[in-house]
Amino acid sequence: MTEHGEDVEGMAMERTPRGTGRRLHGSIAHKIGVAIVSGTYAPGDILSSEVDFSEALDVSRGAYREAIRALAAKGLVESRPKAGTRVLPRARWNLLDPDVLTWAFAGEPDAQFVRNLFELRAVVEPAAAGFAAERRDREDLRVLKEALAQMRRHSLATEAGRIADRDFHDAILRATRNDAMMVLAASIGAAVSWTTQYKQRARALPRNPIPDHARVYEAIAAGDAAGASAAMRVLVDLALQDTASAMGAPV
Amino acid sequence: MTEHGEDVEGMAMERTPRGTGRRLHGSIAHKIGVAIVSGTYAPGDILSSEVDFSEALDVSRGAYREAIRALAAKGLVESRPKAGTRVLPRARWNLLDPDVLTWAFAGEPDAQFVRNLFELRAVVEPAAAGFAAERRDREDLRVLKEALAQMRRHSLATEAGRIADRDFHDAILRATRNDAMMVLAASIGAAVSWTTQYKQRARALPRNPIPDHARVYEAIAAGDAAGASAAMRVLVDLALQDTASAMGAPV
DNA sequence: TGACAATTTTGGTCCGACTATAAGCCGCAT
DNA sequence: ATGCGGCTTATAGTCGGACCAAAATTGTCA
Questions:
Q1: By three-state DSSP, how is residue A84 classified?
Q2: What are the residues facing A87 on neighbouring strands?
Q3: Per-residue confidence (pLDDT) for residue B250, from 0 to 100
Q4: B183–A98: do the CB atoms touch at under 8 Å?
Q5: Which of A62, A104, B151, B196 is placed for a possible disulfide with B164 were both Cys, Cβ 3.0 to 4.6 Å?
Q6: Which residues of chain B does A129 touch, with a Cβ-Cβ cutoff of 8 Å?
Q7: What is the pTM (predicted TM-score) of this model?
Q8: Is A73–B113 a contact, with Cβ atoms under 8 angstroms apart?
Q9: Which of residues 79-98 of A touch strand D (CB under 7 A)?
C-alpha cells in the first residue's frame, strides 16, 4: 500500500513476508471483508471459484478458505458446493461484530449507517447508565472518577483523552453487570470512536464534553437511575449532533 | 456413543458421512463452540496442539483449522504461533452472534445469562416499537396484521404459531428502518425463542399473548410511538415473567 | 552468572489429489 | 408443451504430508 505503487487488481497480497503483522488469512479476510462491506461485491454476487480467486490473490487455497470461513462466521458470505461462495444479503451480516464494524469504517463510512448506529447507541447507553446507577459498587465509582479526571487532564484531541473517554464508558458498562449489554455497547462504542476522527478532521470541537460526562457520573454516584439515564441521553444526543455536522449530513 | 464403544474423548466425529448435514468443519466448530460456551474449556485454557486435537477428532488438520478460524471470528479463541490456541475471556466473546447464542442454548442455558438477554431485549424492543410507529408504511402494517392474524389462528404451542410470533417481531424491526437494530434484535429474538421451549416444557402457558401483541399493533398503526413503546415494554416484561417462572429462577 | 545460541514445539502456509454435493442440463413420459 | 427424474459436471469440501516461521525452552559459553 505504500510505495509499491502497483497492486494492479487492488487485491494482490504482499508477497514479502516482511512486516505482514497480521496472519495471511487474516489480511485476506480483511481485504475481502472491506470489499464486501463497501459494496465492491454486492449481496447476491458470487465470488470467483476458490482456485481462481486464491491464485489471483497469489495465496494458497488453504489460506483463502480459512479467510472465507472467517467471513462466513460473520455472516458476510455463504459457501455451498457447486453453487460457489455468495455474498449474503445485508440483513444477515453481523453488523455489530467488531471486525465488520472496523471494515465498515475502513473506507468512507456510510452516513445513514452512522446515524443508525447512533440511534442504537441512544437507546442502549442511557439504559446502561440507568442500570449502572443501580448496581455500581465502590470500585466502579473509583474507576469512573479516575477516567473523568483523566478526561479533564487531557483533551479529546489527544490519544490519552480518547482512551480516558473510552474507559469512562467501559466502566459504566461493567457496572451494569450485564454481559450482553457490555459486549454490544463495546462494539457500538468502538464504532462511534471511529467517527471521532471525523469530528477532529472537521475541526468541529466546539463543545466541552466534560460537563456532560460529569453529570452522568454524579447521577450514577447518587444512585439516581433516571437521572443517569437522562444525562447519558443528553450526552449521546450532543455527540450525534457534533458528528452529524462534522460529516456534513443533516440529522 | 452407541455400540462403537470407543470415542474415549467424547469428542470424536462421526466417521460415517451419512446424515452429516452440516459440513465437517461446521460440526467441529459447533462441538468446540458448545464446549467453550458451556465451560468445558475455561477462558485462558490452551487447546491441545492442532495435530493432537485434529487427530483426536479424527479429522484432517485443515478441517480443524477452518473450524478454529470460525471460532476465532466469533471471539471465542485466539491462535498465535508457538503460543497455541487459547480460549479468550468471556468479555471478548461475541455473545450476540447467532451461532454463539445457539451454542449457549445447546445445553442448559445459564439463568443469569437469560436474564441479561431479557434485560437487553427490554431495552431495545420497546425503542424499536417506538421507531416503528413513526416510520412504518402501509406494507409494514399489512405484514404486521397478517402475522397477528396467524397468531390468533395458531397457538404458540404450535410451530406455525411461533413462526407467526417471529414474523410479528421481525416486521416491527424492519419498520424501524435501522439495520443495526434489526440485526441485534433478530439475534436476541432468536435466543428468546429458544427459551419458549422451556416455557412449553414447564407447561406454564397461562397467558394469552394475543392481547399484548394486539395493543402493540394498534399503537404502531396509530403512529403512537410512546404508546407502542409502552405496550412493547409490557409484552416483554410479561414474557420475562413467564420464562423466569418456567425456569424456576427468581426474577 | 548472565547473555547468547541451538533446539524444539506449534501454528502458518503451501501443494496436489481425491471426494461429495448439488446446480443445471437432458431426456423421458405424461 | 410440460413436468418430473436421472445424469453430468463444476465447485466446494476433505485429506495428508511437507516445509516455513516464530517463540518458548534449554543449553552453552564467555
A1: strand
A2: A77
A3: 53
A4: no
A5: B151
A6: none
A7: 0.87
A8: no
A9: 79-85
Residues 156-215 of B with CB under 7 A from strand D: none
CB contact under 8 A, A98 and B75: yes
Identity of the amino acid at A148: L
Map residue B200 onto helix, strand or coil: helix
**pLDDT for residue B17 is more than 60:** no
CB contact under 8 A, A123 and B124: yes
CA dihedral sign of residues A178, A182, A183, A188: positive
Q: What would the pLDDT profile of A212-242 be if each residue is shown by its tens digit?
A: 999 999 999 999 999 999 999 999 999 888 8
Question: CA–C1' distance A194–D30 (Å)?
Answer: 53
Task: Sort strands A77-80 and A84-87 into parallel, antiparallel or unpaired.
Answer: antiparallel
Q: Minimal Cα–Cα distance from B5 to chain A, Å?
A: 33
Q: Residue A206: how many CB atoms within 10 A of its CB? A: 7
Query: Which grid coordinates belong to B220?
Result: 404502531
Phi, psi of B81 (to 5 degrees): -50, 135
Q: Please, are residues A44 and A83 in contact by the beta-carbon 8 Å criterion?
A: no
Element (H, E) at B202: none
Q: What CA–CA distance (Å, rounded) separates A9 from A32?
A: 13
> What span, in angstroms and rounded, lies between the C-alpha atoms of A110 and A20?
29
AA identity, residue B37: V
Summarised one tens digit per residue, pLDDT across range A15-69 is 333 334 578 999 999 999 999 999 999 999 999 999 999 999 999 999 999 999 9
The answer to whether strand D lies under 7 Å from the CB of residue B49 is no
In contact, A38 and A56? CB cutoff 8 Å:
no
pLDDT in tens, A131-165: 999 999 999 999 999 999 999 998 777 888 888 99
